[in-house]
Amino acid sequence: MGEKIKVLMVDDEAQFRKTTEKILSKKGFETILAADGEEALEKLAQQPDVVILDIKMPGMDGHAVLRKIGEIRPGTPVIMLTGHGALPSAREALEQGAFDYLAKPCDADLLSLKIREAFQHKTRLPRGEEKRVIGVMVPLQEYTVVRGDKTIAEAVKALRDSFASQAVTPRIMETGHRSILINDVAGDIIGVLAIIDLVEWIMPRYLSAPKPSTADSIQYSPLFWSGMFTQAVKELSAVRIEDVMSPAPITIEGTASLMEAAYLMVTHKARRLLVTLSGKPAGVIREQDLFFEIEKIFRS
Q: Which residues contact 223 (CB under 8 A, 6 or more apart)?
């Protein structure tokens, strides 16, 4: 996917900077940190592609830094971070030339999306032109991919690891992707494993099989259900992923429009699509990525 996007994160809270650097690094960004406005202006010499700038900081506040960035490196997209009680200040920043703003606490997926969106506008996308799928997708390197011949126990660990960065600070959140892509020995994507696949697999087959009407009272008794979940999960542990996974997501070309992605999701009842560029997997677009676009349009 080319060189990493370089992000300058400006915030006076040390823990937030450290946490954000870790999360953005995991999502494939190169991160530069600055503790205040003066340090941020010095680090503009490192030529960041996008700046994430807190509005409320001691000394030089975000508005002052934004103006200086416009003088020193015009055209650099700046995303402002603001508390819920400071939305007028954020809107003022938009009038001053900020690319966009995010309210804290900030979802990590949304932050990642905004960074890529800002970078795309800076490098390729004329202002006012509607984004394509590639501008909204989660890049493949950010999505967990596991071989289909591995066990479900290994898949569960990989899926759990996608949630690793969540809840480390009240100002940034991460919820994981709720699914992993499955490939074969050749590296081709052959399926997807979502949480619902695991839940459906542990359902005993006889629960959905035809049965005498008298069996209903037994089925729903406390004794009938006792210990069933734990036993089913233990039996699932050694099963191969390829025996549990769903088929590979429907594909869509990265240059396709967002309405085409929405149409495919609705008509196929799909929560995610596999994005390709020149026939090769490049990322995943999920229903929440379209939601973030809907939310942005409402605010525009």
A: none
Q: What is the DSSP code (8-state) at residue 210?
A: -
Can you tell me whether residue 209 is helix, strand or coil? coil
CATH number (domain holding residue 110):
3.40.50.2300
Maximum Cα interatomic distance, the chain, rounded to a whole number of Å: 79
Span 273-298, pLDDT tens digits: 999 987 889 889 999 899 988 987 88
Number of domains in the chain: 2
Residues in the chain: 300
- DSSP 3-state of 12: coil
Pairing mode, if any, of strands 189-194 and 246-247?
Answer: antiparallel
Check whether residue 122 and residue 143 sit in a common domain.
no
Q: Summarize pLDDT for 210-251 with one digit per residue, the tens.
A: 665 555 555 567 777 888 899 999 999 999 999 999 999 999
If you search the block for the tokens 């032109």, which residue do you land on? 129
Phi-psi region of 75 (alpha: psi -120 to 50; beta: other; left: phi over 0): left
Domain that holds residue 188: 139-291
